[in-house]
UniProtKB/TrEMBL annotation, chain A:
The keyword Nucleotide-binding applies. Keywords: ATP-binding, Cell membrane, Membrane, Nucleotide-binding, Transport. Gene3D superfamilies: P-loop containing nucleotide triphosphate hydrolases (3.40.50.300). GO terms for molecular function: ATP binding; ATP hydrolysis activity. Residues 4-256 form the ABC transporter domain. The keyword Cell membrane applies. This is Peptide/nickel transport system ATP-binding protein. It is found in: Cell membrane. Residues 344-385 are annotated as: Disordered. PANTHER family: DIPEPTIDE TRANSPORT ATP-BINDING PROTEIN DPPD, OLIGOPEPTIDE TRANSPORT ATP-BINDING PROTEIN APPD. The lineage of its organism: Bacteria, Bacillati, Actinomycetota, Actinomycetes, Micromonosporales.
Automatic annotation (TrEMBL), chain B:
The chain crosses the membrane at residues 42-64, 116-143, 155-178, 184-201, 240-263, 291-312. It comes from the Bacteria. One of its GO terms (biological process) is transmembrane transport. Belongs to the binding-protein-dependent transport system permease family. It is found in: Cell membrane. This is Peptide/nickel transport system permease protein. Residues 112-309 form the ABC transmembrane type-1 domain. It is a multi-pass membrane protein. Keywords: Cell membrane, Membrane, Transmembrane, Transmembrane helix, Transport. InterPro entries: BP-dependent_transpt_permease (IPR050366), MetI-like (IPR000515), MetI-like_sf (IPR035906), OppC_N (IPR025966).
Length: 385, 322
């Protein structure tokens, strides 16, 4: 059984006099112990709200409605009362936030903030707690931890702050760690260090990690399974390699195509997805991505596309998915690298043969034949545990 | 390329060293604010004024040349009020005599102690009660809980009621209720500043309750009471402390006003600037200086507190930080 099983999670914000906002709309995914699962999407696609809803951290306001289930080790996190929820937070599930500076209390020394968690969940006090805190800082790679314990957040560099936050999160060896864009506020070189640290911590302890990010480079380097979100729904789920090699949902295709590449020609422009997240169609009226989709067909508008399950464990929510390389002749050119341009070509071909909504294909057989080297910005093979 | 002279190079090295040392020496928010305070001329002026005032108030009474209640002028026959004779400054009596023949300089110095006492105690009363009410309301409103909104609303409506009354009227009614005495003045002036402290701390706490570090602490399972006390409160105190400094100034003025209205200390044996001002108005035609001395003293002291308070506000405001 999965460690965390999110089933049909929905979050709506209702305000008097305003349209009800459905930020998360039936999201389902599961996380196995020791797994790294990515939630990927643009800003506003509901990835942060999903994580806050699981943690029960959404601000309590009259119009907030959270539905569905989030089963963590047999208990539904959404049904817990405040007290047991507080007991679980920090001990079994911990979270790492985006901005390490504002997530640390500016007037309290780092040491106190770390020992606070130890006192709360492990009952440690005084010297024992201070010693453990120093060890934790040491474990997350903060040099001279004894001195750092007495320092204030503004005296630490951005990377150090994020390390300190990570130390607080892993203080009680939680079984699930949720990282909400943990590297967004950091320099690129520091990003790599922090990701490496997270990977080490997860690998050593059997902790599961939910990685929320918009950065496909992060996904490529870390995640075992990837869930792509759009407009509050999961539009595609796949293991990392198949996803990068042969994305099916046009949104994933677009995301991958828009990643800047080192081997692109000098004058070459980036391939953005046209439009913005705000141009979305409400799901009940069709596919939310339809207004921006290059593979749109008439059937996309009207009713929402069902989730298509392929028998290699992938799923996507599209009635006209990007073809698998090697099936449709035109896709020889349609390696996702040049997706935007090739989609147009594929589209003209597709409309002729009318690709069915559920092309269940023997993907293992295909796997061998597909050309290696998608648009993955260096997914290091040896790290796939 | 210009060649830097040896002396100049030395200076640059020294500055660099100083900067490095300052960088290295770990500083907290308060130490940082203090450092910026020292660079602000207004703060220095305010601090000097206050230092002199406090020094005079604390040790002055031991060194005054005459007793503050000694009617020496009458005894020596120099002061004859009936004939409009109240002598001004002289070598023996620097600020002259008052209408009862007492040495004004001695009374001013001794009065400083009363004034400081009233200002500090009144501000403490206001700060303590205001911070308690505001802190509870702010914690309840910011961190919620089942009764959060209810507690907040109840407390703040009470504060609004206090705020609706003009401050001097409120002070006069309290002073009239309790009967004129020094304690009354302190309580009355303190109560007047309660709503300001309460609203300030509540607002500041609500803002802090929505910050990322509170969310982060919540995500680690820290209890609400702990979050309120260890995280939200220390971050919300800066504006309250600034306000306390500014309140000291208004407290001194309001205490003087109450004394002036006859609601202050009835015992004229212990001189107080406000009482002296009130007494002087009868003789303002003969010797206006009698009113001017305490008035100027009140103004300068209030100015000192205000300068320091404003400078502290600037030093503690993160938005004004360079």
């Amino acid at each position: 059984m999965a460690l965390l099983e999110v089933d049909d999670l929905s979050v709506t914000f209702a305000r008097r006099g305003q349209r009800t906002v459905r930020a998360v709309d039936g999201v389902s995914f599961s996380v196995d112990a020791g797994d790294v699962v990515g939630l990927v999407g643009e800003s506003g696609c509901g990835k942060s709200v999903t994580s806050l809803a699981i943690m029960g951290l959404l601000p309590k306001q009259p119009g907030l409605r959270v539905g569905g289930k989030a089963m963590f080790d047999g208990t539904d996190l959404l049904q817990l009362d405040d007290r047991s929820r507080r007991d679980i937070r920090g001990r079994d599930i911990a979270m790492i936030f985006q901005d390490p500076l504002s997530s640390l209390n500016p007037v309290v020394p780092i040491g106190l903030q770390v020992t606070e968690v130890l006192t709360r969940h492990r009952g440690m006090k005084g010297d024992a707690a201070a010693k453990e805190a120093a060890e934790l800082l040491d474990r997350v790679g903060i040099p001279d931890p004894k001195r750092r314990l007495k320092e204030y957040p503004h005296q630490l560099s951005g990377g150090m702050r994020q390390r300190a936050l990570i130390a607080m999160a892993v203080a009680c060896q939680p079984r699930l760690l949720i990282a909400d864009e943990p590297t967004t506020a950091l320099d690129v070189t520091i990003q790599a260090q922090i990701l490496e640290l997270l990977k080490d911590l997860v690998r050593g302890s059997g902790t599961a990690l939910v990685m929320i990010t918009h950065d496909l480079g992060v996904v490529a380097g870390m995640c075992d399974t990837v869930n792509v979100l759009y407009g509050g729904r999961v539009v595609e789920t796949a293991r990392r390699r198949p996803l990068f090699r042969e994305p099916r949902h046009p949104y994933t295709v677009g995301l991958l195509a828009s990643v800047p590449r080192l081997d692109a020609g000098r004058g070459e422009r980036l391939n953005p997805i046209p439009g913005s997240v705000r141009d979305l169609l409400p799901w009940p009226e069709g596919c939310a991505f339809a207004p921006r989709c290059t593979r749109r067909v008439d059937a996309c508008v009207g009713e929402p596309p069902d989730l298509v399950l392929t028998h290699d464990g992938r799923s996507y929510r599209c009635i006209n998915p990007a073809p698998l390389p090697g099936i449709v002749p035109t896709t020889a050119a349609a390696s996702p690298t040049a997706a935007a341009s090739s989609i147009a070509a594929a589209e003209s071909a597709d409309t002729a043969d009318g690709d069915g909504p559920a092309p269940v294909i023997g993907a293992e057989a295909l796997d061998a034949g597909t050309p290696a080297g998608g648009p993955v910005p260096a997914p290091r093979e040896e790290e796939k545990s | 390329m210009t060649i830097i002279s040896g002396k100049k190079r030395e200076k640059i090295d020294r500055l660099a060293e100083l900067a490095a040392r300052e960088e290295e020496r770990g500083v907290s928010l308060w130490q940082d604010a203090f450092r910026r305070l020292r660079r602000n001329p207004a703060a220095i002026v305010g601090a000097v004024i206050l230092a002199i005032f406090v020094l005079v108030a604390v040790v002055g009474p031991f060194f005054v040349p005459y007793g503050p209640t000694d009617t020496i002028g009458i005894r020596e026959g120099v002061v004859r009020v009936g004939q409009g004779l109240i002598p001004g400054h002289s070598a023996e009596h620097w600020l002259g005599y008052d209408h009862q023949g007492r040495d004004v300089f001695s009374r001013m110095v001794v009065g400083a102690r009363q004034t400081l006492l009233v200002g500090v105690v009144a501000t403490m009363i206001g700060l303590a009660i205001g911070a308690l009410i505001g802190g509870v309301a702010g914690a309840a409103a910011g961190l919620g809980g089942r009764w959060g909104r209810w507690i907040d609303t109840t407390l703040m409506r009470f504060i609004d009621m206090l705020l609706a009354l003009p401050s001097l009227l409120l002070a006069v009614s309290i002073a009239a209720l309790l009967g004129p005495s020094l304690t009354t003045v302190m309580i009355a002036v303190g109560m007047v500043s309660v709503p300001v402290f309460a609203r300030l701390l509540r607002g500041s706490m609500i803002v802090q309750s929505n910050s990322d570090y509170v969310l982060a602490a919540t995500s680690l399972g820290v209890r609400k009471s702990k979050i309120a006390l260890a995280h939200v409160l220390p971050n919300s105190l800066a504006p309250v402390i600034v306000q306390a400094t500014l309140t000291l100034a208004t407290a001194i003025i309001e205490a003087a006003a109450l004394s002036f209205l006859g609601l202050g200390n009835p015992d004229s044996a212990t001189p107080e600037w406000g009482v002296m001002l009130a007494d002087a108005q009868q003789w303002i035609g003969i010797r206006p200086a009698l009113a001017i001395y305490p008035a100027v003293a009140i103004i300068i002291t209030a100015l000192g507190f205000t300068l320091l308070g404003e400078a502290m506000r600037e030093a503690l405001d993160p938005k004004l930080r360079k």
